[in-house]
Design a protein that fits this description.
RNA-binding_domain, Translation Initiation Factor IF3, alpha+beta, about 100 residues, RNA binding
Amino acid sequence: MLTGKQKRFLRAKANQLKPIFQVGKIGVNENMNEQIADALEKRELLKVSILQNCLEDKTVVAEQLAEGTGAEVVQIIGNNIVLYKESKDNKHIVLP
C-alpha cells in the first residue's frame, strides 16, 4: 500500500510519461494483463489510456488492471490510469 507522500512522488514522475497501452471496447483481458505486467517489470511506472468506446467505467478498469497485474493504482486522471509496481530485477525508482 502506497502512502500519500509516495503517491505524490509517483504522480510527479508520471506527469511526463505518455500512455503505452490503450483499453478499448473489449475492456481488460488476460493477454493485456500479461503485457502490462511485463511492462511494469521493466518500467515500474506506466500510464494506460482508456478509449472513448470503452464500455466499462474507468474505476472498474483500473481495479481490474491492478488486480490482474498485482500493481497499485497511483492516479486516475481524465481517461488515463497511472500504475506502479516495484520491479524485482530492474528497480530504478526509489520511493520516499
